[in-house]
Amino acid sequence: MSVDYKSTVFLPRADNFPMRARLPQREPETLKAWDEMDLFGRLREQSKGREKFVLHDGPPYANGHLHMGHALNKILKDAINRSMQMLGYDAHYVPGWDCHGLPIEWKVEEGYRKQGQDKDSIDPVEFRRECREFADYWISQQIEEFKRFGVVGNWADPYLTMSYPVEAQIVREIGKFLQNGGMYRGDRPVLWSVAEKTALADAEVEYHEHTSRTIWVRFPVVTASHAALSDASVVIWTTTPWTIPGNRAIAYDAEETYAVIEVTEPGEGSLAQTGEKLVVGKALVEQVASDTAIDGYKVVAEFKGAELDGTLAAHPFRGQGYEFDVPLLAGGFVTMDQGTGFVHVAPGHGTDDWLLGRQHGLAMPHNVDADGYFVESVPLFAGARVYTPEGKHGDANGRVIDALKDAGKLVTQGKLRHSYPHSWRSKVPLIFRNTPQWFISMETNDLRKKALAAIEETDFYPASGKTRLYSMIENRPDWCVSRQRKWGVPLPIFVHKQTGEPLRDAQVIERIAQVFEQEGGDAWFNSDAQRFLGNAYDAQDYEQVFDVVEVWFDSGSTHAFVLEARDDLKWPASLYLEGSDQHRGWFHTSMLESAGTRGHAPYEGVLTHGFVLDPHGRKMSKSLGNVIAPQDIMAEKGADILRLWVVASDYSEDLRIGDEILRYQADAYRRMRNTLRFLIGNLDGFTESERVQPAEMPELERWVLHRLWEIDRAIMPAIRRYDLMSVYRELYRFCEIDLSAFYFDIRKDVLYCDRPDSIRRKACRTVLDALFHHLTAWLAPILAFTAEEAWWARGTGPEASVHERLFPEVADAWADQPLADKWAKVRKVRRVVTGALEREREAKRIGASLQAHPTVYINDDALLDAVADVDLALVCITSQITVEQGAGPEDAYRLEEVPGVAVKPGLAEGQKCQRCWQVLPEVDRDPKAPETCARCADAVHALGAAAE
Predict the structure, then answer these.
(1) Longest Cα pair distance anywhere in the chain, in angstroms?
(2) Which residue among 389, 633, 717, 861 sits deepest, i.e. has the most Cβ atoms within 10 Å of its Cβ?
(3) 936 is in an annotated binding site
(4) CATH of 844-909, one of 3.40.50.720, 1.10.10.10, 3.30.2320.20, 3.20.20.10
């Protein structure tokens, strides 16, 4: 007589949620289902009337395939948006693109350069049309790539800075600064690219190693403020010899001590002369002597820098067209770190120089043209070139050094390898060049004060972002908003030819804006100026400005043409979220634009993430061969692995990624997927009739409910402060430690072998149902595809989405701290038992833990009380267990971290039940259920499977 016990065991059924995820194949199917169900539209409809949460999208450039930085940024935004949506907000996400500026214009120019054409020879409207088509193409490509990350948003109606209504609004925004007097045209040095022929913003500049020629130059004193200076020369040191023609002053530190040295012994090859007197910083005397090959000298005088006030020197090229005096001026930027303690001041070639020059009324020469050549009016050096368009040194440095040597003013020369500003687009070195540009004043209308006050009212994540943005705005110069380019929003400015004053007329600005709304900025280039000026002004009296607005003003104005313009959004935004470089970029310019026009920040909070690095902490670059493409990761592992990497990382710092890191995340993913699979498989056929109220549940189930309550209380505040890493860690530990390694491990026996109407089994399935509903919701923002797959696997199908849910409310009645404290003690005891059994397995004295009957010695009253009414054999997954009070024998197994518990292994007595595999004396006592224990025999009878 035999019974088929296999058919009476309730094995899990999860065929529709397989262990092997096959994410690269399944995720596109989920995306298709979301499109067909119009998930985004359904979320908006369901969210009507809710409080709005608006994460305003910082616009990426529309100029190429997405990289890992895009993946980090957009996935983080999506995870936060999904979280806030499930918290009960209307989290409407409108993506956008920066369409103007160098990245696109440079690409279009490349085509002309290959044909040997200069873009300046191309009709501007035709050139702009090509830029627009280029941007359009890449926007469509990037939309599909962003969707593949699992990002849900208003992809059908994104914002584009090149759309006609947006260009019109940018005109209105720049017009506000023009009309309130905050904008002016001024001469000042800006970082200039001779390759792109335009000024660059700070955010368009990157720093690379560069070799510069260095020179030490004599400036003979002609008017001395101190007797020791009367026949001496002030020595300066510079890494830009080509700026010497632009010199108009020498700066010193009024608080430092300076020395006059007399050369007694020039070294071999030195250009110093015996008996000459040189003035340098006292702290640098030895260094200067070494640098200039002076073997012998004596200090003839020392004095404070303040005593240099009133000293005048001759320009090194006096007598050759440079007949002016060079005053010595106190400058706060002078240091004694290197050089000579004096700084050569060329107001047209540096910000500090310009500020000092403006303070003292110095001349601001325009020496270098847009191509990097010295202009015709520069004595000695007209036609010399600083850099070529390819970034190579021109002849300017050499010609200046040769002329200094001929004039007897060169002390020595050398080379220096140092960090130097380069264009982030063309990679060529930049120069500081004095040009007429349009600026927004930081002081007029108290723009700086308003911006700093607005920062104080803004929340920053992490908090250090506040200090960084504050210091940048506190110390920044006026905002240069003009660019000498073609692809951008034209500056809507007319300048009166006689007065040089810009026309500040609101009606003209609005007329320009209205034209742009219909025809775009192209109209500026193909319309008669009178069209914009109307009848009130004569176009013959005005110069039309053909510069364009710098792209950072475009993106800084997005709050105006996105947040304010769309009824389904709100101003200010709830959150701006970008990389840490945007403290000098989008966060920065958005603050200035909004504070200047509205007196308030355009955002309530700012979240900053780091950069993506390779596993060794290096920046990814093609030259290093360490670039990892998100498309490749998704093709091999799936987007949910990428999403897990983002959320599992501390994104407030730089993030590393590589094969080993991704393997770790894939393993973590499998563990969480298997948790969901266990739930789905063991909930097969679950109905409401099985549901058990908490009061009727065993302690272990009530402990799980308490843990759900604890996790809810931990992760909801974390979600509200955008700390998704803490959310992930709580959920991962819960799945791995509390569920898989503890609760599931213990309850498999009950789920598989208890009779269907067992209170233990029904209570367990009730708790599994609660776990499923909570975990699928909590994981949905992180594992967007997998949570959806799990939700559909329980029978909903694509008619409803897990992302339409709100986070479930967790009843306070589930909280039971005394129970949690008790089971924390039980788990301590269990750890010692499982450790002892593992050692027995390794020694091959047992095969499975159900073969064991350990004796547990407990010499701790609190632990003993905790396990007194607990079925410890069930908890430790042994067939039998004995608990004794006392210290236990010396050879018993112990864990140092759990004092007071010792375990002596032993073998279980009896036979092995062929249904549950427990070894018990009672096995084989029921002839109609042979070879089973009492519990299993009862279940077999209840199921009608007993032998006749």
Answers:
(1) 126
(2) 633
(3) yes
(4) 3.30.2320.20
